[in-house]
Amino acid sequence: MKTYHPNKNLSKRFNYKRGKFWKLIIALSFATSFLSPQANAFPFGKKSGKAVCSKIHVGTQDQVINTAVGGAVVRELEIFKDNLPTDGEYKGLKYDLEWSSYTSGPPITNKMIANQIQIGLMGDFPAVINLIKGREGSGKAKTVYIGTLAYSPNGAGNAVVVPINSSATKLTDLKGGIVSVPFGSAAHGMVLKALSDAGLDTKRDVTLISQAPAVGGSALQKNQIAAHADFVPFGELFPFKGYAKKIFDGAQTGVPTLHGITVREDFAKQCPEVVTAFMKSVIQANNKFQKTPEKLSASIEEWSGIDKEVVYMFLGPSGLQPLTPEIKEVQLLALENSIAVLKDLGKIQDKSIQPSNVRDWIDDSFLEAAVSELGTSVDEQSEKGASYVITGKDSYDSSTIENPKMAAQIWFEGQKKVKNFASTKNMLLALNGKFKSKTPSVLFVHDRFQGWKLFATNAFYVDEDGMISSFLLKSDADKFAESVNSEVLDFKTLSKKYS
């Protein structure tokens, strides 16, 4: 098995051997009537597919946390390698399995069109471009969407951040400033809607420019821009690094977003068992992560360079985006919305392409086959993701954690496990007393209204005689404080009250 990374800058720890691309030779033959039901669904014989199936190249985005479990975890734990079919027509087949990681989806699409990558992991906007591009020209490079990696039903993950010393606390504070975003990304669609909803005209009130995450991060540190909008994980990574703070969460738009899996249609037809094996591997990786989220978050940091605390924030219990393989209405809406926004931006010139087209580009047969082989169901796996919240006993007073939205967490330096608390008050009491000698790596609280996981040091608080509510937005905190006749506090002030 070969693995390699073309982008050596992703992490110093990568040491992948660069493989050579082999031209795939596809010999087609008609399926006969005595083939199995699964094989009958494809107009290709197993013999021709056998040669094609030996060469598998997976394109992923290790730094985009939503693809990390289906990409890096599956790769590094060799789950896909172990699941590859080895019996029947696949008996004796020597696989040449390659992986490559990119910072965005377009390079993956380009190599899928060139038949150099068969399986690609990417976000919703790049995914629909992938699906459309494969149908242009001769249409010989068609791809299909086969499953989801992680998603948000309301858009959590995309975000707008400002320099740490900025006085801005809401989007209207950005009037007259420069806002950057990677054009054509899910964050681009999000920020256009968000600014419009806030009454800001992108041609008159703000200057919108295109910047990749790394460039946007640098511009924030140098105070060259008023704000930067981006996708997973940068809306949380930059604040965690200490040079930005979030003033808008994509979840405020209410528009779903996702990262998922596209596969070349010809490869899927000729190698259905291989594609099913990949989908099966993703589900197994999801389950492994949910059993040991801290351990695998630390491993993903090693493999991707993204801090384990940020990985955990997205994918751990009560995280920003649940891991689930489903392709249900909310996922379809995410893909349809991406097409609609791209059309509005003039990125899709073909007038025949409509949002509804995406429903014809879905193939959930591999997902159904995978859950069947694992003895589970799509609904069961979806419920696992949706119900993956903070539970158990409070680390301060051993009380039962009953409301995840009011829960808090501390990940101490050098500790393998995150400490859970039923309330922010108990977290502060423990931090200033029971665990005073320990150094926290990160502290999490959750937005009272929405349940979003927040960095505790950046949140706003309202204290009702020990009943502490946390908020992402100062405006929400202000309204709540007024309703309970209290005041809004920052973390430093709140912490002193319980020291």
Distance between termini?
56 Å
Protein structure class: alpha+beta
CATH class of the largest domain: Alpha Beta
- Number of strand elements: 17
Helix content: 25-40%
User: Mind telling me which CATH architecture of the largest domain this is?
Assistant: 3-Layer(aba) Sandwich
* CATH homologous superfamily designation of the largest domain: Periplasmic binding protein-like II
List the total number of helices.
19
Average pLDDT confidence is 88
Strand count, sense and barrel status of the largest sheet are:
5 strands, mixed
Radius of gyration, in angstroms, nearest whole number = 23 Å
CATH topology of the largest domain: D-Maltodextrin-Binding Protein, domain 2
> How many structurally independent domains?
3
